[in-house]
Design a protein that fits this description.
Elements lengths: L4 H25 L2 H6 L3 E8 L10 E4 L2 E12 L2 E9 L8 E7 L6 E7 L12 E2 L4 E2 L4 H14 L2 H15 L3 H20 L1 H9 L2 H9 L1 H20 L1 H24 L3 H18 L1 H21 L84 H5 L59 E3 L5 E3 L13 H5 L3 E2 L1
Parallel strand pairs: 1-7, 2-6, 5-8
Antiparallel strand pairs: 1-4, 2-3, 3-4, 5-6, 9-10, 10-11
C-alpha cells in the first residue's frame, strides 16, 4: 500500500509529537533517569523510633520545599530505617533534625528536614541521621484513646453544656470564620512567597529573643510602673480633664505673654543658651561647689560655737587679723614693664592692653597661688593653664622666672607666651602731673592738767580724755561725747 506525501508528512509530525511528549513525560514528570539510574540524586538514611505511617514515595521537604522522596522503609530492631533520595542540586546542612508530619487529614505523612544552622557542611551520599535527631507524631490510636478517656471523665451534662455553649459562641459566625480561614490561607501563601526572608528572620531572631529574656525583670518593672501611672491618671481623671480643657487657653495666654515680651525675651533666651553652654562646660566645678557649700556653711557656723554659752556681751565670730605685709611679696613677672604701668591715681579707663596679663611664675610657686596660671582645665582633667586656648591645645604652661624679681623675658622669646610691649620706636606714656598737695596737718599744744587746747581757728577747746584726771580706759559713752568749746 502506497501512502501519498500528505499522509507521510502527517505521520512524521505525529511521530515527532508523540516522541517529544513521551520524553517529556519520562524525563520531566516521571523522572525516569533519577528513578532508574539515580542521576542527580544521593541517598541519606534516617533512623526513626517507629515508622509512624511513613510509606515509600512520601515527600521529603527542606524549608517547606520538596527536595526528594522516601525510597523505602525498613524495619529494624530499634524501630524503622528510612532511605531518602534527595536532589543533589540543593545543599542541605548536615546539622539538622528530621521530623515526620502529617500532610493531610487522611494521614499522608512526609519528612521535614529542619536545619539548626546554615554553617554546617551539606549532606552527602551515605550520611545517616540518628534517632536522637528525629521526631515522629504521636500514635493516633493513643491520641484517640486519650481523648476518649478525657471525654469520659467529663460528666455528660457538663459535656452537653460545653457543646451547647460552643454552639452559642460560634453559631452564625460562618462568614467571619471563613474570612479568618481565607486570611490565614493568604498569609501562608505570602509567607511561602517570601520564604527566604521569613526563614532568615526566624534564624536571626534568637539574639532579639535572648535580649528580651534577659530584660524580663526590667520589662516587668516597666509594666508595673506603667500600670501604677495608669491608676494615678484614672484616680486623677477630674484634674486631668480640667488640664486638658484649660490647657488650650493657658497656652494661648502664654503665647500672648511671649509676644508682649518681644524682643527682650528672645535675646534673654539666646543669652541663656550661652550661659547653659558655659554651665555644661563647668558642670564638674558647679557640682563640686554645690557639694562643698554646705560643708563650708557648717564650718562658718562652727565659729559661733566658741562663745555660744558664755557671758560675754558680744556674741560673734572669733577672728584673728594678722597683717602679713609683703609676705609673700607681690608678683611682678608677666605684667607690663614699669615704663608702661599707669599711676594708681589716674581716673581714666583706657583700653585693655592686648595679650594675657597674669603672674607667670612656676605653678608651684608661693606667689599668687590662686592666680590664672593654676586655673583647672575642665575639659582636660589634670591640666592647669591660664587660658582656654592653652587648655584645648597641646601647649604646656611655661613660667618666665621665679617671680621674686622683675627679670623675666619681656618679649617671651623663650616661652612663646607674649607679654604686651610698646611697639619699636614708641615713647612710653607721659607721667601724669601730680595732684594738689594735701592740706597741712594742724598741730596744737594742750594742757595735760585740764585737757584745754587752742585750735587753728583760735578758739579754746577742752577734751576731757586728755586730762591727767581722766580715766585710763575711756568708756564708749565718753567716746561719743564731742569735745567742748569754751
Amino acid at each position: 500500500m502506497r501512502l501519498d506525501r500528505r499522509v507521510q508528512i502527517q505521520l512524521a509530525l505525529f511521530t515527532v509529537i508523540a516522541v517529544t511528549a513521551g520524553a517529556t513525560m519520562g524525563f520531566v514528570y516521571m523522572r525516569l533517569p533519577e528513578m532508574l539510574f539515580g542521576v542527580g540524586q544521593y541517598k541519606v538514611t534516617v533512623d526513626l523510633p517507629r515508622a509512624a505511617g511513613l510509606y515509600p514515595n512520601a515527600n521529603v521537604t527542606y524549608r517547606g520545599t520538596e527536595v526528594g522522596r522516601v525510597e523505602r522503609v525498613d524495619v529494624t530492631d530499634a524501630g524503622a530505617r528510612v532511605v531518602m533520595t534527595l536532589d543533589s542540586e540543593i545543599a542541605i546542612p548536615s546539622d539538622l533534625t528530621a521530623e515526620v508530619h502529617s500532610q493531610s487529614a487522611i494521614g499522608e505523612q512526609f519528612i521535614a528536614l529542619l536545619p539548626r544552622s546554615g554553617e554546617s557542611p551539606p549532606l552527602k551520599n551515605g550520611d545517616v541521621i540518628t534517632a536522637t535527631d528525629t521526631s515522629v507524631p504521636p500514635d493516633i490510636d493513643t491520641l484517640l484513646n486519650g481523648i476518649d478517656t478525657g471525654l469520659s471523665a467529663i460528666p455528660q451534662g457538663n459535656l452537653k453544656t460545653a457543646i451547647d455553649e460552643s454552639y452559642v459562641a460560634f453559631g452564625g459566625l460562618g462568614p467571619e470564620l471563613t474570612r479568618m480561614v481565607q486570611g490565614s490561607t493568604q498569609l501562608a501563601i505570602d509567607a511561602d512567597a517570601n520564604l527566604d526572608s521569613l526563614t532568615a528572620l526566624i534564624d536571626k531572631s534568637q539574639p532579639v529573643l535572648d535580649s528580651q529574656s534577659d530584660s524580663a525583670s526590667a520589662i516587668q518593672t516597666w509594666a508595673a510602673r506603667s500600670s501604677a501611672i495608669a491608676d494615678q491618671l484614672r484616680s486623677r481623671d477630674p484634674s486631668l480633664s480640667g488640664l486638658i480643657r484649660q490647657g488650650g487657653p493657658a497656652f494661648d495666654e502664654g503665647r500672648q505673654l511671649f509676644e508682649r515680651l518681644q524682643p527682650a525675651l528672645p535675646v534673654l533666651l539666646t543669652n541663656l543658651v550661652s550661659v547653659g553652654e558655659v554651665a555644661v562646660t563647668y558642670q564638674p566645678a558647679i557640682e563640686q561647689l554645690l557639694v562643698l557649700m554646705p560643708q563650708g556653711t557648717s564650718a562658718l557656723q562652727g565659729i559661733l560655737v566658741a562663745n555660744a554659752d558664755t557671758k560675754q556681751d558680744y556674741k560673734g565670730l572669733f577672728l584673728n587679723f594678722q597683717l602679713n605685709l609683703n609676705l609673700p611679696p607681690a608678683c611682678l613677672t608677666g605684667y607690663l614693664p614699669p615704663q608702661q604701668q599707669r599711676a594708681a591715681s589716674h581716673q581714666d579707663y583706657p583700653d585693655r592692653p592686648a595679650g594675657d596679663l597674669y603672674c607667670r611664675v612656676p605653678q608651684d610657686s608661693s606667689l599668687n597661688v590662686r592666680g590664672a596660671r593654676n586655673y583647672p582645665c575642665l575639659a582636660v582633667p589634670g591640666k592647669r593653664a591660664p587660658t582656654v586656648a592653652m587648655c584645648e591645645s597641646d601647649e604646656q604652661y611655661m613660667p618666665l622666672n621665679d617671680g621674686f624679681n622683675w627679670k623675666g623675658d619681656p618679649n617671651a622669646t623663650l616661652s612663646g607666651q607674649s607679654v604686651p610691649q610698646l611697639p619699636p620706636g614708641s615713647e612710653p606714656p607721659p607721667i601724669a602731673a601730680p595732684g594738689p598737695a594735701p592740706p597741712e596737718v594742724a598741730i596744737a599744744e594742750y594742757d595735760p592738767a585740764t585737757g584745754n587746747y587752742i585750735g587753728p581757728d583760735g578758739k579754746l577747746y577742752t577734751q576731757s580724755d586728755l586730762a591727767q584726771r581722766a580715766p585710763k580706759e575711756p568708756t564708749w559713752q565718753s567716746m561719743l561725747i564731742p569735745p567742748t568749746v569754751n
